[in-house]
């Protein structure tokens, strides 16, 4: 699918200009300048805290979801990048594309600053800021170049920023609304637990476990995998758990019907099969280690008696 999308975006301008030597750079610019940034921009809404106590800066932390109001500006900026970098490279950009680059510089710069401000640089998933960093640098560099060439003058700056003001106002409003909807207590239900809300004939049977809770075979399998993971690689397990505590609860909050839970249960099936395989290998290695310890203990006992 990604290959088809890249071809649909880059092959027509290559044919138009008979520039097959620029095919590789066109594919790279389309992937790094359009598809990946837009995907990261949309998926960043999953980083919105799932309860009010997780918002260190109040409604500002909910801007990850509120910034979806900026999608028209993002699409404008991507169209400008496509027109100037891929469709007609080397030609003088038109006013609409110059303003689009300006909008991309503002949006990417604000998103980068917000990510550094709310997420920080010392967390396990701060590596996700790499994409906003190079995107902001890309757009800002083009903006400076257009300003130096006289293509972006003060009236255009004013008109461009003034025209985008309503989108920013809506994004702030959505951020505040999202914050008011957050629960006061942290959620206790995650993706695999939410999948148990499906029809019992599919997700069951459910068995009682410690603490008065119920679990199906899928949930028990993932619990065992986490136990194995925490023993063999506690550092990576802690990193995964911190990310999952945010994303897992966010996704689980959208599982509101048995049919949706059934779909999640089925989507998790391949991962469940892999988890069961890992658990089997870990249990087999544990039995081998115990057998070796028993063998060594018996040999030592025989030597002492001798």
Contiguous low-pLDDT stretches (5 residues minimum) are none
**Overall SS class:** mainly alpha
Number of strands: 2
How far is the first residue's CA from the last residue's CA?
71 Å
The percentage helix is over 70%
Largest sheet: 2 strands, antiparallel
C-alpha Rg (nearest Å) = 26 Å
Number of helices: 13
Order of helices and strands: HHHHHHHHHEEHHHH
Overall mean confidence score, pLDDT:
81
Principal-axes geometry comes out as: elongated
Name the strands of the widest sheet in spatial order: 1-2
**Beta-strand fraction estimate:** under 5%
* Tally of individual domains: 2
How would you describe this structure in keywords?
306 residues; 13 helices; 2 strands
Task: Set out the fold topology.
Blueprint: H1 2-17, H2 23-43, H3 63-66, H4 71-87, H5 95-118, H6 130-148, H7 154-181, H8 191-195, H9 200-203, E1 207-208, E2 214-215, H10 217-232, H11 234-252, H12 258-267, H13 269-305
Antiparallel strand pairs: 1-2
Helix pairs in contact: 1-2, 2-4, 4-5, 5-6, 5-7, 10-11, 10-13
């Amino acid at each position: 699918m990604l290959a088809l999308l890249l071809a649909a975006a880059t092959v027509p301008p290559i044919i138009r200009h008979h520039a097959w030597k620029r095919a590789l750079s066109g594919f790279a610019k389309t992937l790094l300048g359009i598809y990946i940034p837009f995907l990261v921009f949309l998926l960043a809404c999953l980083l919105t805290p799932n309860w009010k106590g997780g918002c260190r800066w109040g409604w500002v932390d909910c801007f990850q979801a509120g910034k979806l109001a900026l999608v028209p500006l993002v699409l404008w900026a991507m169209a400008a990048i496509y027109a100037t970098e891929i469709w007609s490279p080397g030609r003088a950009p038109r006013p609409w594309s110059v303003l689009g680059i300006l909008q991309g510089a503002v949006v990417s710069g604000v998103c980068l600053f917000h990510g550094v401000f709310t997420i920080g640089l010392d967390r396990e998933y701060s590596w996700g800021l790499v994409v906003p960093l190079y995107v902001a640098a890309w757009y800002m560099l083009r903006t400076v170049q257009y300003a130096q060439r006289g293509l972006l003058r003060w009236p255009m700056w004013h008109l461009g920023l003034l025209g985008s003001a309503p989108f920013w106002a809506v994004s702030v409003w959505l951020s505040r609304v999202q914050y008011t909807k957050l629960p006061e207590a942290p959620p206790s239900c995650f993706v695999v637990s939410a999948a148990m809300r499906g029809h019992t004939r599919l997700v069951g049977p459910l068995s009682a476990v410690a603490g008065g809770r119920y679990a199906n075979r899928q949930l028990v399998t993932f619990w065992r995998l986490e136990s194995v993971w925490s023993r063999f690689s506690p550092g990576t397990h802690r990193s995964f758990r911190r990310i999952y505590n945010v994303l897992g609860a966010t996704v689980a909050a959208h599982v509101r019907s048995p049919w949706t839970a059934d779909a999640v249960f089925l989507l998790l099936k391949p991962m469940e099969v892999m988890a069961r395989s890992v658990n089997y290998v870990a249990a087999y290695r544990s039995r081998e280690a115990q057998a070796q310890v028993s063998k060594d203990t018996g040999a030592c006992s025989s030597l002492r008696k001798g």
